């Protein structure tokens, strides 16, 4: 008798600007998927492995000019390379669904679009970092007043990137919408207004074609 191979899990990333509810929804969506009998691993970027969490501190703490734009993009990609190999790939291979709070599209939108490096250039360094390891589905949460929620949560002490000016965050938002328009098979825009439960229901609906 031959052993059955474990079916590979699905890789889902939640994306969007500051304070749109990604971390809240990773937890809620994980719970909803577990209730359907799925094994779920929750993770985040930058971070998600020991080395990547160290890089997170380097990226998010300290003065705005601690890193120039290229060094910043490369540090995000380095953290991601470690995260994929140490956490994401083993979980997918074991059959788990991986829910990731931000992934490569944050680099495309923040460093590529808003940061001025160019989406294609940042995609190229990330292709080197992660190979074909793009998510099966990326859900971008859209909320008009996300920055206000983030400010209330952070009590006006944002991190090195969250504290950038409003026009930077507007450019992030535009870049996310352009990514969604360019990759409709992988990327879905999701309305993040309303109650926590209403948003979770929209996210589950946006995964309907992937669910067993
Ligand atoms: N549906 C909702 N209605 C009202 N408040 C919400 C909702 N979802 C999340 N929040 C609150 O909004 C704030 C931001 O949420 P959260 O930290 O999940 O966002 P985020 O997208 O992960 O933010 P960031 O990218 O800045 O880390 C939190 O205080 C959270 O409790
Ligand atoms: C993955 C990733 C993140 N960022 C930025 C976006 C946020 O300002 C911070 C992360 O903070 P969070 O509270 O955990 O959301 O980092 C980025 O600029 N580029 C990236 O690739």
TrEMBL record:
Pfam families with a match to the protein in the record: Thymidylate_kin
GO biological process: dTDP biosynthetic process; dTTP biosynthetic process; dUDP biosynthetic process
Record has Transferase as a keyword: yes
Catalytic activity: dTMP + ATP = dTDP + ADP
PROSITE patterns given in the database record: THYMIDYLATE_KINASE
GO cellular component: cytosol
Binding locations of ATP: 16-23
GO molecular function: ATP binding; dTMP kinase activity
Top-level taxon: Bacteria
EC number annotated for this UniProt entry: 2.7.4.9
InterPro entries the record matches: P-loop_NTPase (IPR027417), Thymidylate_kin-like_dom (IPR039430), Thymidylate_kin_CS (IPR018095), Thymidylate_kinase (IPR018094)
Coiled coil stretches, renumbered: none
Keywords: ATP-binding, Kinase, Nucleotide biosynthesis, Nucleotide-binding, Transferase
Domain Thymidylate kinase-like: 14-201
Function summary: Phosphorylation of dTMP to form dTDP in both de novo and salvage pathways of dTTP synthesis.
Family affiliation: Belongs to the thymidylate kinase family.
NCBIfam families: DTMP_kinase (TIGR00041)
Protein name from the UniProt record: Thymidylate kinase
């Amino acid at each position: 008798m031959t052993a059955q191979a474990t079916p590979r899990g699905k890789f889902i990333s939640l994306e969007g600007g500051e304070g749109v509810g990604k971390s809240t929804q990773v937890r809620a969506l994980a719970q909803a998927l577990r209730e359907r009998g799925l094994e779920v691993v929750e993770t985040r970027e930058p971070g998600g492995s020991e080395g990547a969490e160290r890089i997170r501190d380097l990226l998010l703490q300290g003065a705005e000019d601690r890193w120039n734009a290229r060094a910043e993009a490369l540090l995000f990609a380095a953290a991601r390379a470690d995260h994929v190999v140490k956490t994401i790939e083993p979980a997918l291979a074991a059959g788990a669904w991986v829910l990731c709070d931000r992934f490569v599209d944050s680099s495309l939108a923040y460093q590529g679009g808003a940061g001025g490096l160019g989406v294609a250039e940042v995609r190229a360094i990330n292709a080197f970092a992660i190979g074909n390891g793009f998510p099966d589905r990326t859900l971008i949460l859209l909320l008009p007043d996300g920055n206000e929620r983030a400010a209330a949560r952070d009590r006006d002490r944002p991190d090195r990137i969250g504290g950038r000016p409003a026009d930077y965050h507007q450019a992030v938002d535009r870049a996310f919408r352009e990514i969604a328009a360019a990759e409709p098979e992988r990327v879905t825009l999701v309305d993040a207004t309303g109650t926590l439960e209403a948003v979770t229901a929209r996210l589950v609906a946006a995964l309907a074609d992937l669910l067993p």
